[in-house]
Amino acid sequence: MTAYWPTLGNYVEGLEKAGKLIRITTPVNKDTELHPLVRLQFRGLPESQRKAFLFENVVDSAGRHYDIPVLVGALAGSADIYALGMGCDLDQIEDVWRNALAHQIAPVVVGNPACQEVVISGAELSQAGHGLGRLPIPISTPGFDNAPYTTAGHWVTKDPETGMHNLGNYRGMVKAEDRIGVLLGRLAWGMRWHIDRWRERGATRVPAAIVIGVPPHVSYAAVTRIPNDMCEYDVAGGFVGRPLELTRCVTQDLLVPAEAEIVIEGTVPTDLVEMEGAFGEFPGYMAQRDYSFFMDVTAITMRKKPIYLSIISQMPPSESSKMRNIGRAAAGIRRLRSAGMDNVIAVEYLECAGSNAVAVVKLKKRNPDDGKKALRLLAEKFMGKLLVAVDEDINIKDAENVLWAIAYRAQPYRDTEVVEAPPFTLDPAAVPPGVSRGLVTRDAPPRSSALLIDATMPWPYPPLSLPKREFMERAIEMWQGLQLPALDLKEPWWGYSLGHWTPEEEQEAELAVQGRHYETGEKQKQGRRPFGE
User: Fold this and answer.
1) Is residue 490 pLDDT above 80, yes or no?
2) In this predicted structure, what is the pLDDT of residue 433?
3) Cα distance between residue 207 and residue 228, in whole Å
4) Which of 115, 355, 471, 509 could be a cystine partner for 467, CB 3.0 to 4.6 Å?
5) Average of pLDDT values for 312-325?
6) Peptide bond preceding 317: is omega within 30 degrees of 0, i.e. cis?
7) What is the rounded average pLDDT of the residues 458-486?
8) Residues 6+ positions from 291 with CB-CB distance below 8 Å
9) Across the chain, what does the average pLDDT equal?
10) Which pLDDT belongs to residue 382?
11) pLDDT per position as a tens digit, 192-220
12) Does position 416 have pLDDT exceeding 70, yes or no?
């Protein structure tokens, strides 16, 4: 079981104690300054130096001062921060995910929740600055976004028949004090799946809620793509080995985390849509405007002194790409192993591609087709646009190492394959701007495909052309003795055998380092033969 942060406030204390929090007490404009300031660390600092930011003096472009602080970078400013939020060591994250998915724990319902200490409803919701305007929601991409958007808003809906809840992270465009848009970019999944099921049964409105500022393990479940037949609340319980406490909304028949900082309740029409966007999205481009769903707000509840949580997304690397990087890897390896591929060692979604488009599978190949088989299984669920299989010696977190494997362990005519994949509507390469993506129309969704590359060795290879490990380790000792700059060694940094290396070649190499290479030369002289034989 991992350590447990019962509330976001407790977690903020933990961040500060760990030296991972920066408090900003000077006035910061949420519309023009807040996200750009945090963005700088993702463009200009190594990951190890990234921190969470708590803005305690938030203002907006109209001159309003907010009494709610804004927290950014707290869920996944870095892998270290993610591990802290998970309550485990960095090298335990995969095990924690695997255990949570395998040993889910159902939630419990409680009364008198902290998230309902303040309740705003009725006519007050539509008054200027009393509804959504009360919340210090930042503009994520100043100069391009057309409104403030919730980015760490976990939307709650439920299946009209089974009552199973879905907790999914979708952007929310603030449109009025009592109206907020939502983009559901994947058909037949999560909240969109629920809306369509309610409509099929004649419902014109779907109860919905947005929870903001939940304990971190709940967010990690919400932002990861979990199958429709699995509840994020149960997975969150599995993370910490105890049931998540839920409470009933004040105006909707839904259950939400009792320890949330803020809850926005309302209903989503099933038969009406509005224009939404443009908004800067995780592929690194502005996502085009399109018709999408919206929620009419019926209540906003919160703690007496809440914290507003925001996620840095947009151009990778970002906070959202780091969360996808970790969560998608866990989901990917679960899919492969559940299909019987226990020879899969690890799955990685390269963060430079938004932890979405480029997936790499490391495996110990037992059969010639193992690489392609693993890639096809991932592509079926749109878990990658470019999928690569590599051997166990490749560092799958290093894009350069992966490209090296592609360059010299694959032949395009033999080892590549293009397959159909579920539509990815946020891909700017899918359709031109202004063309329907089929999200809320009868138009067919854009075609998506995946390129599979089996970059595993087709047969035994000679050793890498790097000095053996003992010689490189001696070189490191010399380097340090000379007080040269600190090294950050990139794998591979020593040579090793890949199966094809004869005893004769090994002996000749040993003679060379002993200065006896003339012996090899004499042997080769004795083995001369006429040209062309």
Assistant:
1) yes
2) 84
3) 18
4) 471
5) 91
6) yes
7) 93
8) 273, 274, 275, 276, 439, 440, 441
9) 93
10) 66
11) 999 999 999 999 999 999 999 999 999 99
12) yes
Backbone dihedral angles phi then psi of residue 322, each to the nearest 5 degrees: -70, -40
Q: How far apart are CA 85 and CA 77, in angstroms?
A: 11
Locus of tokens 């921060």:
81
* Residue 512 in this model has a pLDDT that exceeds 80: yes
- φ and ψ of 326, to 5 deg: -80, -45
Report the candidate in 348, 345, 346 with the shortest Cα–Cα distance to residue 321.
348
CA distances from 415 to 370, 390, 399 (A): 12, 12, 19
Which two tokens mark 62? 């109209």
Chain-centroid distance of CA 224 in Å reads 7
pLDDT band with cut points at 50, 70 and 90 for residue 2:
low
| 46 against 434, higher pLDDT | 46
The residues that bridge with 245 in the sheet, in sequence order, are 108
Which residues touch 237 (CB under 8 Å, ≥6 apart)? 104, 105, 106, 107, 243, 244
Q: Cis omega before residue 492 (within 30°)?
A: yes
| Dihedral sign from CA coordinates of 380, 152, 55, 75 | negative
Phi, psi of 199 (to 5 degrees): -65, -40
| CA-closest candidate to residue 308, choices 186, 219, 217, 214 | 214
Q: What does pTM read for this prediction?
A: 0.89
Give the pLDDT confidence score for residue 446 in this predicted structure.
Answer: 83
Residue carrying structure tokens 């019962």: 6
Q: Is 301 strand, coil or helix?
A: strand
In terms of DSSP bridges, do strands 118-121 and 308-310 run parallel, antiparallel, or are they unpaired?
unpaired
Q: At 9, which helix (H) or strand (E)?
A: helix 8-17
Residue with the two structure tokens 């919701």: 125
Q: Where are the beta strands (DSSP E) in 344-447?
A: 344-349, 358-363, 386-390, 416-421
The residue length of the chain stands at: 533
